[in-house]
Amino acid sequence: MPLLSLTAEQAQANIRRNRRALWPDGRVDTRRLHGLATVQFDPSFTLEPGEAVFTMGSCFARNIERRLVTLGFEIPAASVTIPEAERGSTIGDTELLNKFGPHAMINELRWAFDPGVPFPQGGFLQVGEGLWHDPHLSSSVAPASLERVQERRAMVQAFYRQLPRCRVVVITLGLAETWFDAQTGLYLNRAPPNESLKREPKRFRLDLLSYSELTEVLETLHGLLKAHGAKGLRVLITVSPVPFRVTFTGQDAITANSYSKSVQRAAVEEYVRAHPDVDYFPSYEIVTHTARNLAFYNDERHISPKVVEAIVDRMVAAYGGAALSAAADDDTSAAKDGAASDAVRVADDLREELKAGRIRQTLRLFAALDDPERLVESGLDEFWFRYQYGRALLKDEQSVEAEVQLAKALAIDPESASAHFASGLARVGLQRSLQAEAAFRRAVELEPDNVYYQARLAREMIRNHRSQEAESLALRGLAASPDDERLKKVLSAARREEALALLKLERVSTSGWERLKALLGRLARA
Question: Structure pTM?
Fold first, then answer.
């Protein structure tokens, strides 16, 4: 049975009514897929300023929570705290609540509200002498005594019992890969610890959920929310744009992640269409259609905080909340439209000033856009921005600031020969000759046929008293480009430097005299 069935007249009317039904052609629409992608969504309810919002799901739910707190909403999850010593290297307080599969959310709701479904005996896993782990919570939290693990379990169940006072529930789905515990008959939140897998290898298995399984689980989850939630409860659901760190299926992680997100997104579509009290919010689409260097940290997994803020601000603006940021959706917030338009205008001016070579004006415009949110709004590629900013600072002899911008560019693209070369020039300005040589050498490694890079590297070698290496490099370059004047000049400079070094020696070996005579002869012929 199709999810949607329309008459031909209805289908045609949809296109006439909504121009965003057309894919954004970059020749016509230069905004929707530039900077932070703009994706339409249609709220069916409104958020009340400061109301309590219940959040559950994967780590992206934690991103949403943090922003909602700053916008003045009451977030029960924010009251969950654990001691610093119990956190993993990257875990915050509320990351204890991460739920990566929908079964894990169902488990928590049953344990919180159904007296006939207690937390199972044997549900905790021993991972060491006196150390226990709760596989239904985040795997990042440190193992602890059985008593402490039980206290955490009680704290989490107390959090879930706050559901009835929240009219709005925000859910983020994370993974389609989930681990099953044959002893308890329950799906876990994350993979069991290695100690448990070694001790009881036949107890656990990995399941890759199908579309039908996910739709069934979402229906069960919805039933529990309606049964135990507030009167008039509304659900806002999304698929987390954060990819998983590793797949257990044996596939390429990129392929496996594509299935995981796609099957969840498809199941959510059926779920939303089946329930008028459920909305879908397209955070997944916004992030995945935004340039990766703007949307993601360098780990290529976690979302930039500024991008999260902009996405949540769009959501709050669309759903009628009072506290809005400057990054609200341009169709629903005049402030956002003005800020984004201004950033785009500054970016256009920047390109023109760069083309004209007006460095001081260019630097003023670079500084105006040097903010993560403004850069997203401008639609500029961040690598291009950092690299060009660094080059402009070099031309203005601001070597310290130039190196800072070029280091940011190289963090985005460490294989850019041009950025390594420009970084070398900045280090020359800072009189760090050995570091400059290393940068020039990396540029030559990445573009071995670039005679300009070869000549500059050879010059720095001469400064570092390695004239023979500089001569060899220049000769290799001239073998490929025999008429290049830069290489000819650096070759002469290398030989002259070496000859002077030999003349300064108090004692010169026989081979040294032969080398000196040969050098003087070549210099005379040059």
Answer: 0.63
